[in-house]
């Protein structure tokens, strides 16, 4: 059972992590979260885009319309330096947190 | 065919009124998402309809609208609800977050117990005072009688040619009206009567009411026990010795005994059977005069100790109330009743031509009586509204104070709030959280306020009972509703601004823990200054009001009464109610006086029909050889007193002699008059030996002139007064008040005098035992009450305002610590620093004082006739109160200022 607070803090990190290696569009992000968590984590589509817009406004990510041959144009989000910084900080925090949990309660996050 | 996703999305987003280019982008992006989901579903082998449903499944359009509208608003830095939802938890968020807020709020309040305690006490006082005054206003001014359809009830009165409105009718007239009227569905009569009630060995004086047989049925009141009266209980004189007890009397005297019906009590020595108990909360039809019991009108000759008035058309003693027939308007009813009233007076047998003429000149008036009748209402309306205004101001000041405290706390919590905002908490969510804390505070305040209100009401009622008002006051849903309403309003009032302010911090600065230094302030601080100015202004307004009332009270206390009120004890009794003959009454009083005179500690003693300030009868005077001008007011107050009365009361005899034991029933009629009367009718002539008559032929010789004394109302000039001997012209009155001048403390003699009475008749109740000082104090209880309460509230306001000022200044000094350190390091003197801080604080205080004075000048005129001997713009008050407040404000600023001068420049410079 995931606590609200935990989820709240983790959402942005998940998005940042997914766009870290390459830009992705919204549907892809939602799908990836669902697939990689085996359906445990599901995005409310109604929440996803507003969140993306906010993160964009805060300069963590940047969306660009990209048109590929034979496809409709899509909006791809890529990680910005601010976002990279935030992601690293959060990774560190979570990693410390899990390490602590593991030491105390023998939880293996992997 | 594929659904038109763009169209579907655009339809849902229309309400948001996004800028067109932004809308195009969002619509396109969301439509793409939906389309992708749809195609994935098709690819998985679903039908088109199933695929469309699958794609739409995840879409909560309301949530989307909501989220988007927030995300797209210009100001950034807001992240809302957790967008990641556990599938099984969907929808469970709201309730959970409220509970969470409450828990969190409670934790935060417990973390600052000092703050919480101060806030709750402040609120409890504010809300409690408001609730207490409201419950009185509700009972006296607002509440409807606890009877069936009170709105249908009207009270009957008659307006005469002289313009006076009279409410007393004769009993035969009531009977005629009842039998012959077509406009009322019922008409009832009632009349108050004082009774000696005895039973199981105790005798006490109780307030009774004689009522017509239909009294309870017209009002639609059902008994709690037994039965109510019917017309059969009121058929023939003296035949129906039955009584119904009020609920509170049943509780008090019979301890709520459920078997009380059928028991016998003696009322004025006459046995009555208890047939019922009235329901809880029913106090008759007069607010402020709750009778202990009711008896049928037909028992009047048995209980009143007076002549049989039931047949007398020239004796006006019953009050009438009627219930309008449905479908008949009040106007029609009034016209109908008036016509009938005149018809009855034309037809009535046995009226003297003079009286008939007088009665025919009268017109019936109907007044709405759904709230009951009350002298209390006229007397207390203005004071109660003024007090309500005062406690309202106190509450406002309290709100300002707590808002101020909350703002200060919000500053301390700025970092916490900034972190939460940065981590994705929504602003609305945080405001809700902060408001939850405010509501927790205000509800706690309301709860304790209810306790304060109960004490307050008890206190107010004991004050009212001094003035002979009995008010049945139970906390009810209306009062609880008011209390809750005030608590909620208060919570919003003091919580909203700080909550909005606190959630609008400059994130970066707050996170970096950077506090603006030299500029000093920030938006929140401006608000705090504004609150302090408002507090000072409001408390000045209250204090000026209180000052004016205190001056009024001083003036009243300083009045020359014309007699010595100290060391006089008063006791009343009425042996007539125990069935004494006139001879026996006379010898009883003579023996009692002899016994009391012998008691050690008694200087002199005398009797009067009513205490000096307790009333008098008013009648027309005739003066031998004096021709009254047309329309001249010839009314005088008259009192019956025994020998040595003037000596006992310390009233100086200016001319002639006092009464003595020889001024008997058969002896020549004599009178003593006061200065005013002598001046009005005899000018500079010597009135001694002249003859007057009071409601009689002018055969009474004036034997003495006394100094003027106050009568009933301290604010009024002494009326012309005639004193006559107790036994002239007829026998001694049955009810007399013993006046005893004592050498020591008057109350020390109460028991000894009671024993004297008991030795003569152990079944004779002694009542209205009090000192004359108390009686005088009671005559100005209204002024005392207002002066006391307004001073209390004024001082409370002063305390709150100076705490507010102190808080702001202390905070300011803490914020400017570094600046002050720099100044000191650069060579500023401590006096410069002192000046710097005090000047800033006093600036606020003086603005507040200025505003308060202006407001007071505009508002104190509404106090007008509540004041005595002082103008609403009294210079002394308008100078001394602002000066006092300035002094207090100076102190409130000085303490933090002094602390500022103690700053060590080095520490301050390192201070963050």
Short summary:
The complex is a heterodimer of chains A (110) and B (912). Chain A is an alpha+beta fold and 110 residues long. Chain A is built from four helices and four strands.
Which features does this protein show?
heterodimer; A: 110 residues; alpha+beta; Arc Repressor Mutant, subunit A; 4 helices; 4 strands; globular; B: 912 residues; 4 domains; 6-stranded mixed beta barrel
Give an overview of the whole structure.
The complex is a heterodimer of chains A (110) and B (912). Chain A has helices at residues 4-18, 26-36, 45-57, 81-105, and strands at 24-25, 42-43, 61-66, 74-79. With 110 residues, chain A is an alpha+beta fold. Chain A has a single domain (4-100), classed as Arc Repressor Mutant, subunit A, CATH 1.10.10.10. In chain A, helix 1 (4-18) packs across helix 4 (81-105). The longest helix of chain A has 25 residues, at 81-105. The mean pLDDT of chain A is 80. Chain B folds into four domains: 5-74, no CATH class; 100-143 and 376-514, no CATH class; 150-370, no CATH class; 568-744, no CATH class. Chain B contains 28 helices and 23 strands. Chain B has a six-stranded mixed beta barrel. The longest helix of chain B is centred in the middle third of the chain and has 40 residues, at 427-466. The A-B interface holds A 1-2, 4, 7-12, 14, 25-27, 30, 39-51, 53-54, 57-58, 65, 72-75 and B 25-26, 28-30, 32-33, 36-37, 58-61, 63-64, 67-68, 70-72, 76-87, 93, 96, 423-425. Strand 2 of chain A pairs antiparallel with strand 1 (84-85) of chain B, so a sheet runs across the interface.
The CATH architecture classification of chain A is: Orthogonal Bundle
Output the structural class of chain B: alpha+beta
Q: Class of chain A in CATH?
A: Mainly Alpha
Assign the structural class of chain A, choosing from mainly alpha, mainly beta, alpha/beta, alpha+beta, or little secondary structure: alpha+beta
User: Which two protein chains have the largest interface (Cβ within 8 Å of the partner's Cβ), and how many residues from each?
Assistant: A-B, 36 and 37 residues
| Euclidean distance between termini CA atoms of chain B | 67 Å
Radius of gyration of chain B: 38 Å
Q: What gross morphology of chain B would you assign?
A: globular
Uncertain spans of chain B, ≥5 residues at pLDDT below 50?
75-94, 514-521
Q: How many distinct domains of chain B?
A: 4
Number of helices of chain A: 4
Helix coverage percent of residues of chain A? Answer: 55-70%
| Multimeric state | heterodimer
Tell me the distance between the termini of chain A.
17 Å
Strand order within the widest sheet of chain A? 1-4-3
> Helical segment tally of chain B?
28
Global morphology of chain A = globular
Listing every helix as H and every strand as E from the N terminus to the C terminus, the arrangement of chain A reads HEHEHEEH
What percentage of the residues of chain A does DSSP assign to strands (E)?
Answer: 5-15%
The CATH fourth-level homologous superfamily of chain A: Winged helix-like DNA-binding domain superfamily/Winged helix DNA-binding domain
Q: In this structure, how is the largest beta sheet of chain A organized?
A: 3 strands, antiparallel
